[in-house]
Structure formats: structure tokens, C-alpha cells
Model the fold of this input.
Amino acid sequence: MKKPNFIIMLMDNMGYGDAGCFGSLQHRTPNLDHMATEGVKLTSFYSSSGVCTPSRASLMTGCYPRRVNMHVGGSDHECVLFPVNAKGLHPDEKSIATLLREVGYATGIIGKWHLGDQPEFLPTRHGFDSFFGCPYSEDMVPNEQRPGWPLLPLMRDEKVVEAPADRTTLTKRYTEEAQRFIRKNKEQPFFLYLAHAMPGSTDRPFASDGFDGKSANGPYGDAIEELDWSAGEIFRTLQEEGLDENTMVIWTSDNGAVGWMPRQGSNAPLKGWGYTTTEGGQRVPFIARWPGRVAAGAIFDDVATMMDIYPTLAGLAGAEMPADRTIDGHDFMPLLAGDPRAESAYDTRGFFFYYRDQLQAVRAGEWKLYLPLEQKLTNLDGDYSKAKPAVAELYNLRNDIAEQREVAAQHPDVVARLMALADAARAELGDHGFETASQRPAGRVDNPTPRLLGEVIT
Done:
């Protein structure tokens, strides 16, 4: 029996309420809406962080960002990796691409990487046969504050082929490259990681001429509607090549929409914005489609996370999970398939919300507890001198998705149980001011160099 193909489509900073099938009344997303009718929609799916680098590290490794020391950037004040950082995902980490390549998969990443721009950390050193995209975020360009940053590099494998990258055409070109990858590898099992740059991290997202100025929500809406077009093109290509029935497609976002002023994206009905540990910061839209294998048209509210994709794909591909390290994710294929016996492992073990190095919240089952903290960090540069005290807040998210009714006083037993889960997480994964033996190191190089047009990496 032929192994299934896998496609992960990951959006950048797209909100929970930005697609029609998740409630948007502004954005036209017919392809995603159709995907939801043919696939399964998860309404309590979480990114492992409110920012890019940690979230993507979890997707690649199946681990909490703190587990692999990718919860912060290259220096104490950086929340994500920046250009020419000495830090990156450790070469010894076994990415999902490495795992799948070992069992015969063609592996490709198209789009945003953001796990290190040094040669040792590039996707081609982490199990991907090919890479076409940018090594970090589309907003990381030279400016008055960062005049020494290199021009935004667009890379093919380990070579910069364009600098600065034309951001207006990234979605279009990434889609066309994805179509070529699918056609090229249609005779063997493949894993395609399509990590779009949009709507992105600037206050004015980019779209190509066919979508620019066409939506009811300005540049942000233009970008969303082009992303929907992209999804439709991927499905069209799968159908044309006869691959539709044997391909699992996952569509989600790396974290919630950012709270720009004036507002652009939407995390409705959730409270909070991207870059935080709020529901709006880390609960993200999720759709999986695989004809005949996932529960078509189903909507499940069980807790699942970005970390679960790793063991799920490994199991479906017949790949052995690494036995020499802890993987935090759980195989959630029974949930996607609609098995009535499926249970979320997080109901008993808890899911933990870290802001940089600080544990700030726990979810287990219907309950989310924001932890009482003497200094709750809310600035991305990690300055604890600005942090203020926070009291415990408990919400029943199944009955109160917008977190309007705080009920800690009414449920001291639930507070105690979730506080105990938080203590166990600290012992395993660490917290502000201390690490544990269960954490693995990030990679580091001594003399980081910029990725420049015309360079030759050896």
C-alpha cells in the first residue's frame, strides 16, 4: 500500500476569525470553506507559542519550545530569531522532515523557515531535500533601527537567488513552486511544508496584482484572500495529478492575528492578540482534509496542539519515533478520524502556555488557568522591570469562549489541580530563572554571517 502524502500549509499571524469557516464576515475564503466541509475542523487547536520561531520549532520537533531551547531568540532581549543570529535549531534535533525522509519521502519546504539563517541551521540541513523561501520573517529588512541587516534574501536550497525579495509576489510564487513540487514528486510519497509569509508581521501585508485592493478589508484582507486562492490551487493540482485521495492536507496558522491599530486581523470570538499567551494569541484555526480518512464536515473542540502533527505524520508514514529523546506531542489521528473513543491527552496532562521563558497559563479539558505571578511578563523584549503582578484567573472555555466570566473563587479544586500541573511543567521544562536537565540545547555558531546574493555556502 502506498504511503500517504502530507501537505502542511502554515499561515503567518493569521487570526482565529480570519476565514469564513471560522466566522469571518469580511474575507472571502471559498476554498478554505470548502476544505472545511470536506475535512475536519478543530476549534481548540493551539500553537505552542504566540510568536513565530518557537511555534515553528514545535511543528518541526513535536516538542515544547522550551524543550529544545527555541523559546527565545539569539539574545536575552529577542523573542524570535533575527537575521545573522548565532542561534538556530540544533543540528542534532530530528525534524519531521528528517523522520519522513528516512522512510522514503521526498521532502520540501516552500516559504518561511525562521529556525536559523546560518548554514548549519537551514532547512536543507534539517531533512528537507529542497528549500525555496526566506530564512526569516518578511518584516526583517534594513531600516533606521537595523541599518546593518542584509536585504531580505529569497533562497533556493542554500543559495540566495533574489535580494531584496519581492514581497508582493511571495504568495503567488510560493504557490506555483508548490505546484511544481507536487508534480515532480507525484510518483513517490512526499511531504510538502508550505509556510506562507502572509499576512505576516508588517502593518501592511503584501499581495500580488490580482488581489491587491480587491478585498473589503484593505491590504490585510487582500493577503487573506490570496492565501485562500493558494489553497484552492493546491487542491486543484492534487486532483489533476490523481493524488487527492492519498494526500492529507493540514491548514493552520503559527499564532493569532496581531493587534495592529487600526485593527486588521480578527481572533473573534477569542480574547487577546498574537504575541501573547491569551486565547487569541495561541488558539489558531485548523482544518485537516483527507478523503475517506478524516471525518468530513466534522467539528471537534478537543484540545490539540502544533506538537501533535509530528507524531501523527510519523505514525501514518510508518516512521519510528526517536527513542533517545522526549517528544511532547501526541498522535491525534483518532480525533481527526472521528473515533468516538478519542481523548485529548491534554485533558489530564495539561497544555502549557509559555511567554518567552515564563510559564503563564495551563489548559486542561474545558478549563484554562492564568497563573498567579509576582511579575507577569508582557513585553517581548523580556524586561522584567516592566512586569506587574497578576492574580489567578480561571475560565471554562467550553461555556465561555470569550473569557468573560472569571470563576477561580467558585472552583478552588480546579485551580489546585491546574496549579499542580503547572508545578509538574516547571520541574520538566523550567520557568523564568531556571532550566532543567530535560531541556535540550539550541544550536550555536561562533561567527554568524549574513545570507547575501551571490554567496557560495560551503
The longest helix spans residues 218-240. The first strand starts at residue 5 and ends at 12.
